[in-house]
Structures are given as C-alpha cells and as structure tokens.
C-alpha cells in the first residue's frame, strides 16, 4: 500500500477545520500529535459490492469471496495525513564565510 495522502495546513486552526471536515465525511482519527493528525476511512466494503461478490462467487466459495473482499476493502482504506507547516521565522542575521584552500 502506498503512503497516506498529505494535506498541509498553515496553522492549528486550519488543521482542526480540515480534520472536522474529514470526520464529517466518514473518516476517523487513527493517531493525533501536536502538528499532525492521521485519519482513515476504513470500512468493510460497500453493500452493493458484497452483493455482487456474493452473486458471482457464493456458489463455489461458500462466502469466502465476501470475507476476502471485506478484508481487502479494510486494508486498502484511504488515509489522510494532515500536517501543520508553520512558517519559519528567523531572528537576527547570519554570517556565512567561506575559505578556499
């Protein structure tokens, strides 16, 4: 499985808004840190696909096809990582010197 999609936020407030929007659409929080939140939309598959898999495979697999589809749908769930990318504020000045040998 490839890694999670990454959504960048400029501050904590934007991260919380994005997290709330994703929770509203069916995601749940997998882990949360100070500047990151990982959300997952894990499910066991849609009812329509389970019916289709049942109709196509139930006769010779004794419903094992539905179990395999459920596990596949759960492990391939969509994940979103929200990261806060706060701007770096530099104070003072830096002096860079180079010496040639």
Write the layout of secondary structure elements.
Layout: E1 5-9, H1 12-24, E2 28-32, E3 36-40, H2 47-61, H3 64-75, E4 79-84
Parallel strand pairs: 1-4
Antiparallel strand pairs: 2-3, 3-4
Helix pairs in contact: 2-3
Q: Portion of residues in helices?
A: 25-40%
Low-confidence segments: none
Instruction: Quickly give the structural class.
Output: alpha+beta
Please summarize the sheet with the most strands.
4 strands, mixed
Instruction: Note the gap between the termini.
Output: 50 Å
Arithmetic mean pLDDT:
86
Structural account:
The protein has 101 residues and is α+β, with helices and mostly antiparallel strands. It has one domain (5-84). It has 3 helices and 4 strands, in the order βαββααβ. It has helices at residues 12-24, 47-61, 64-75, and strands at 5-9, 28-32, 36-40, 79-84. It has a 4-stranded mixed β-sheet with strand order 1-4-3-2, covered by helices on one side. α2 (47-61) runs antiparallel to α3. The longest helix has 15 residues, at 47-61. The mean pLDDT is 86.
């Amino acid at each position: 499985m490839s890694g999670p999609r990454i959504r960048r936020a400029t501050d904590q407030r934007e991260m919380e808004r994005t997290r709330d929007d994703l929770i509203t659409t069916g995601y749940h929080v997998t882990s949360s840190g100070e500047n990151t939140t990982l959300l997952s939309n894990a499910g066991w598959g849609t009812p329509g696909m389970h019916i289709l898999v049942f109709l196509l495979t139930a006769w010779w697999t004794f419903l094992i096809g539905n179990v395999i589809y459920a596990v596949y749908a759960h492990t391939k769930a969509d994940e979103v990582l929200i990261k806060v990318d706060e701007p770096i504020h530099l104070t003072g000045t830096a002096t860079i010197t180079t010496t040639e040998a």
